Amino acid sequence: MTTVLNPATCLMALALLLGGTGARADGMVPDTSVVIVHEAEGEAAVSVTNTDSQLALLHVTLQDIPEDTEPLLVVTPPLSRVEPSKSQLVRFILQSQQPLLTQRLKRAIFEGMPQGRPATQAGHARVGVTVRQNLPVIIHPKGLAPNRTPWTELTWSQHGNTLQVRNTSPYVVRLAQELRLLPGDGKAMLPRTYVLPGETLSVPASGGPATKVRLQPATVYGFAVAAYEAPIT
């Protein structure tokens, strides 16, 4: 059985699995909650620790988001043996043929496959649970200044019962899907937790005409910050 966990909830989920169900949890833990590959450097490295008490194989794969399927990265090594409590350095190497104009978003999956488990005794059952970490990968263009508040670059408009958001910036914006329309108790729901550079999303909205939208943005590392209110034009 494979359990997919967000990095922010991984430790809590592990505690529940170990303490609540008696299942055994094994996992590879990256030293970051997001992989950032700078075009100027050409690659990024992540240290992944085997938190299990047994030797395990670390399998790392890259996953495209549906909106961007261009192959931009290679990962090395994709498969490695990691001793218990030891770490493996994984490199993400940029292979873009053209200079990047905006940030790009991919995902990286880190999965540990335990090796050398002792045989189960007769009459005893063992449930093995591997923790599969799925992290965002942001590729940052050369010469683009860092932006700690990219959600302020979003522009919002309302057309009847439709709320529209446009990202005219070169930054990937991460935010919660739930939106509040002010004044009043209007609501809207984004289809996902990111808005890509140059993208426009339109979603149904309740509550009638509004002048502001309240959103819950997240930093590049996925940590929630204070709610932000943006004007609706």
From TrEMBL:
Q: Which segment of the chain is annotated as a signal peptide? A: 1-25
Indicate whether Iron-sulfur appears among the record's keywords: no
Q: Quote the InterPro entries the UniProt record gives.
A: Ig-like_fold (IPR013783), PapD-like_sf (IPR008962), Periplasmic_pilus_chap (IPR050643), Pili_assmbl_chap_C_dom_sf (IPR036316), Pili_assmbl_chaperone_bac (IPR001829), Pili_assmbl_chaperone_N (IPR016147)
Which terms are listed as keywords in the entry? Chaperone, Periplasm, Signal
A cellular-component GO term for this protein:
outer membrane-bounded periplasmic space
- Where is this chain's protein located in or outside the cell? Periplasm
| Record domain Pili assembly chaperone N-terminal: where | 27-144
Highest rank taxon of the organism: Bacteria
Cite the Gene3D superfamilies for this sequence. Immunoglobulins
Pfam families reported in the protein's UniProt record: PapD_N (PF00345)
Q: Name one GO biological process term.
A: cell wall organization
Per the similarity annotation, which family is this?
Belongs to the periplasmic pilus chaperone family.
What is this protein called in UniProt? Fimbria/pilus periplasmic chaperone
